[in-house]
Design brief:
heterodimer; A: 232 residues; alpha/beta; 33% helix; disordered C terminus; B: 775 residues; eight-stranded mixed β-sheet; 24 strands; 17% strand; binds adenosine-5'-diphosphate; binds magnesium ion
């Protein structure tokens, strides 16, 4: 589904380029659950952002379902964000002034889904995530784990085929983290392709494949069928 | 609906920054609303006349002499000639302003002094003064009077007074022909009553008073059949007087009545000044608002990035930002309007206007107001819209993201702009105040304090000598003098004076003032040569300005002549500043006042207990003339009227500069709160490293002082330029010195430092452990 070849990403300062990503080649199939690991500053988020069309590589090619992603118009990019790609972040990034319900609903508003349909879809997800009682609360009234649940709900309400998660459990206690990881694993089983950045080996085990990034270069890739080492 | 809700939630979240920003905006807008009220009122002058576009005014001016001098009116023969000779002219009217003539009008035992205009009754055909009762009456009957509604009610209550007979000036009986609605305050034609012009014949005792081609006392209005006819009149009228009197130096000029108040009387100057101030304050308030709303831009930028990542278009984002701003501005406008309306009576009181709300609720003012609103929204919304979308999404969503780094310059320039506006306004206030005080305290050639005057009517005029003696008997009265005019407003002038060696083409306009022999003593005026005239020393006294025009070395004993009569000069008096304080004194001749010309008795008293003195003076007047109510006043008050425009300007500019300073303080407070919050950690670290509180406070305050200084560098030349232009209207004026600028800069910066000090001190004295725990 995703094919990156020879991706470079550098920042040009006055006298030198500093490479964040260098000659990255990566292929990800539909239905995979990939974990990206590596030290801080290695370029993990940058890679994720490039895949998610929030950032552009300085060189290389990127195709998504066979389509070239580097020559997209702004309009097309927005289409992908609305329909194909969902994001979750370490810092949750919920909109503080919106209630749980409204946060989850927002992508549908942008997508132009009718109000009645929106209601049904959000209600469904709230039900699935056991958050019906919390739907009128504001993010600040929730625990970190609950906030991340809302963020996931918001990311998947548009039924994206690809979910990008940048250290989704980084700000959470371990048991909250576990809950989130199980949720992601469940989504993956239902067919969603997931790429996550994580520092935790345990969390990486939820995926079927680990990519280790050091100084912008992919050092190691190991494939491990998720069902093979399912932690308990 | 949803956006409104969202905006309110945001406001609730960022209480302090938002409320400071909004408060600043409200303060600025209140100021703008008042300026708008004021400008709108000025611009609405005389606009209520339905024929406004067709009315023109003709007046005379004097060429020759030292400079061109305009008269308000022109000779009485001009109006009929206009009507006869120009087919474009539908009607004309001669008018002597009501402000000039105060006459006693009585009905039974009800007496009142009315400002009475003398006018051709065509006045009511040309202008829109609608009748409540009756009509303009018979144009050929001089024995009638038209009253305004309030005045009529004083005599007749609510009943229809048409046909009732009132006594005028205690000499004639006039029939009430009609009652007109009260005249709006924004009318340049004001009166309590109108009597037909023919009555002037009796008043001035001359039969040809209405037919001469000289005497520029008559304000002359014309009504055109169509506005297009004006150009022909304006271009052909100039030498009309010369057709009858080839030797006359009076020329005629026509202007459109609708331009009279604003342009001819130069009220547009203050309109411009205040529009400029309004714009500056609005700019400052809006910048302040922008500054404080973008203080939370880190969060907003993150939110924007996030919204983009979940599929928002640029359009969505921009719409969100603008509607956010539009809602807040709407709130601020609403609040400002409410506050302004609530404070309107106070404002009216302060500036001596009667601005009503009704004038606002018509198309043009509302349109302008909506325009101001849209501009504010555009201004306040464009910056965040542009600024927030300038970040790349991935950048905003990174955990260490701060939008502020590259914002320091911008914030500084916003702060500086607000500073500049405040300093300009504050300095201007000081300069205008100084100039006004200068005019008020200027040496005017006599002592205007403790002078009471009585207007002489009826028997008071006939028996002025007795009156004077009686009054002088009371111990509080030092001296008294009978005069033709009050020294502040001398309205009689001519160009007939000749002297030996004068260039025959040089015809200076010389003012004629009549007094009795006690003028110098009573007014405490100063002679610079010779003596004042007295019963055994007949002759004239000239003022210093006239002496300079003539240019001799000595004057006493020499003669001047006027209209074939020669007059010996007995003395030269130091200039008594009259009519205008802004110009240098004009030439004047003082003569023994004739009985018929005596209009005032000016009395010097030696006490400030005026009540008692006035009571005893009134008693004396009433015994001599029981039919007229006593009319008295203070020379001081009359004098104050000369600086009314400046005093008003001073009041308004000071109010507005206070508004601007409040905006500045609110803005600085917001900025410093934001900065200290941002630097909590840094301050904590510094304190742990042993830096003391005062050094930290100084570090926090320093940028504000620097901004203030940079702003001063911009504000000083701007203020200097503006104020210099303003001062050019005055011959008698102050010099712009550095001290006034220095003073205002020191004060502005001191206010700024005081505003930010407390916050800085609080931040610097916070427990460092607490500070480091933050985040
Ligand atoms: N706008 C930028 N300008 C310069 N360097 C940047 C910029 N954004 C990120 N970087 C650098 O890119 C590197 C990789 O960042 P990132 O992808 O966030 O790393 P990770 O997520 O692996 O911690 C870091 O060293 C960071 O300093
Ligand atoms: Mg990262």
């Amino acid at each position: 589904m995703i094919k990156l070849s020879n991706i470079d990403r550098y920042y040009q300062s006055k006298f030198q380029r500093s490479f964040v990503l260098k000659a990255v080649n990566l292929e990800i199939q539909q239905g995979e659950f990939v974990s990206i690991m590596g030290p801080s500053g290695a370029g993990k988020s940058t890679l994720l952002n490039i895949i998610g069309l929030l950032d552009e590589p300085s060189a290389g090619t990127y195709t998504f379902l066979g389509n070239d992603m580097l020559s997209l118009t702004e309009k097309k990019k927005i289409e992908y964000h609305r329909n194909a790609i969902g994001f979750i972040f370490q810092a949750f990034h919920l909109i503080e002034e919106l209630t749980v319900y409204e946060n989850i609903e927002t992508p549908l508003v942008y997508k132009g889904v009718k109000s009645k349909e929106r209601k049904a879809m959000v209600a469904d997800l709230l039900d699935q995530f056991n958050m019906v009682a919390k739907k009128d609360l504001f993010p600040s009234q929730l625990s970190g784990g609950q906030q991340q649940l809302v963020a996931i709900a918001r990311a998947i309400i548009g039924k994206p085929m690809l979910l990008l998660a940048d250290e989704p459990t980084g700000n959470l206690h371990s048991d909250q983290g576990k809950q989130i990881m199980e949720l992601l694993s469940g989504l993956n089983k239902e067919g969603m392709t997931i790429i996550q950045v994580t520092h935790s080996e345990t969390n990486a085990m939820y995926g079927n494949r680990v990519i280790r990034l050091v100084d912008g270069i992919i050092r190691e890739e190991n494939v491990q069928p998720a069902f093979f080492i399912q932690p308990n | 609906m949803k956006t409104i809700l969202l905006t309110f939630r945001k406001l609730k979240k960022n209480k302090t920054a938002a409320s400071l920003g909004i408060a600043g905006l409200v303060v600025g807008l209140v100021c703008v609303v008042y300026i708008f009220f004021w400008v709108n009122d000025e611009a609405s002058y005389d606009r209520f006349h339905t024929n406004i576009d067709r009315i023109f005014v003709v007046h005379a001016y004097l060429e020759g002499g030292t400079k061109k001098i305009d008269f308000r009116g022109c000779p009485p023969a001009v109006a009929p000639a206009l009507k006869d000779e120009y087919p474009e002219v539908e009607n004309t009217c001669r008018y002597l302003p009501g402000e000039y003539f105060e006459h006693l009008v009585s009905f039974g035992d009800k007496k009142s002094i009315l400002k009475t205009a003398y006018a051709d009754v065509s006045l009511f055909d040309i202008f829109s003064f609608p009748f409540v009762y009756g009509n303009k009456g018979n144009p050929d009957d001089p024995n009638q009077i038209i009253l305004t509604q309030t005045v009529a009610a004083r005599y007749f209550g609510d009943t229809d007074p048409v046909g009732k007979i009132v006594r005028f000036n205690n000499t004639t009986n006039l029939t009430v022909a009609g009652v007109v609605k009260d005249i709006p305050h924004n009318s340049s034609i004001q009166f309590d009553a109108v009597v037909p012009l023919q009555n002037l014949v009796a008043l001035w005792g001359r039969n040809d008073i209405l037919t001469t081609w000289y005497n520029n006392a008559f304000t002359t209005f014309g009504l055109l059949k169509s506005p297009a006819g004006f150009d022909k009149i304006a271009s052909t009228i100039t030498r009309r007087i010369q057709k009858e009197m080839p030797e006359s130096t009076n020329f005629l000029r026509a202007y459109q009545f609708k331009n009279g108040y604003l342009y001819e009387q130069n009220n547009i100057r203050n309109v411009k000044i205040f529009s400029l101030i309004g714009l500056m304050v609005l700019l400052a308030a809006t910048l302040n608002f922008i500054n404080l709303t973008t203080a939370r831009s880190t969060k907003q930028a993150k939110e924007t990035g996030l919204r983009k990542s979940i599929g928002a278009t640029r359009g969505n984002i921009i719409k969100l930002i603008y509607s956010d701003v539009a809602i807040i501005c709407l709130l601020a406008f609403g609040a400002a309007l409410l506050i302004a309306i609530a404070g309107l009576p106070f404002f009216n009181n302060l500036i001596g206007k009667q601005i009503g709300l009704s004038s606002l609720f018509s198309v043009a003012p509302l349109g302008i107001f909506i325009l101001i609103y849209l501009c504010t929204v555009l201004l306040a919304g464009s910056y965040p819209a542009f600024f927030l979308s300038s970040f790349s999404v991935s950048e905003t969503l990174r955990s260490g993201f701060h939008s502020v780094k590259n914002k320091g310059v911008l914030r500084n320039s916003l702060v500086i702009t607000i500073f500049v506006v405040s300093i300009i306004l504050f300095t201007s206030t000081l300069i205008i105040t100084k100039q006004t005080l200068f005019l008020q305290k200027m040496d005017i050639g006599f002592n205007k304090e403790q002078l009471i005057y009585i207007t002489l009517e009826g028997k008071l005029k006939e028996r002025v000598k007795t009156l004077k003696e009686e009054i002088k008997r009371s111990p509080e009265v030092t001296s008294a003098t009978a005069t033709s005019f009050l020294p502040v407003v001398v309205g009689n002038n001519g160009e007939g004076w000749e002297w030996e060696g004068k260039d025959p083409n040089f015809k200076p306009l010389v003012t004629d003032w009549g007094t009795d022999e006690d003028m110098v003593k009573t007014l405490e005026a100063r002679l610079i040569e010779g003596n004042y005239f007295s019963n055994d020393r007949q002759g004239i006294v000239i003022n210093k300005a006239f002496a300079e025009v003539i240019g001799w070395d000595s004057f006493v004993g020499k003669t001047l002549s006027a209209y074939g009569q020669s007059h010996q000069i007995v003395g030269v008096i130091d200039n008594i500043q009259y009519n205008s304080l802004s110009e240098t004194c004009r030439p004047m001749v003082i003569q023994q006042v004739g009985d018929w010309a005596t209009r005032y008795l000016i009395i010097r008293v030696n006490t400030n207990q005026f009540d008692k003195t006035i009571k005893s003076i009134s008693k004396i007047c009433e015994t001599i003339e029981p039919d007229f109510p006593v009319q008295y006043g203070f020379v001081n008050d009359e004098f104050a009227k000369l600086t009314k425009a400046e005093a008003n300007l001073k009041k308004l500019v000071s109010i507005f500069s206070v508004f601007a300073l409040i905006v500045l303080c609110l803005g600085l407070l917001g900025v410093v709160m934001f900065l200290t919050e941002q630097k909590t950690k840094e301050i904590g670290v510094r304190k742990c490293l042993g830096e003391n509180v005062s050094s930290i406070v100084v570090k926090l305050i320093k940028p504000f002082v620097v901004s203030g200084l940079v702003a001063s560098a911009i504000a000083i030349p701007a203020t200097w330029y503006l104020m210099n232009r303003w001062l050019q209207n005055y011959t008698n004026r102050i010099d712009l010195d550095g001290w006034i600028f220095l003073f205002s800069i020191v004060i502005s910066i001191a206010i700024a430092v005081a505003t930010v000090s407390w916050q800085s001190w609080r931040a610097a004295t916070r427990n460092p452990v607490e500070a480091l725990k933050y985040e």
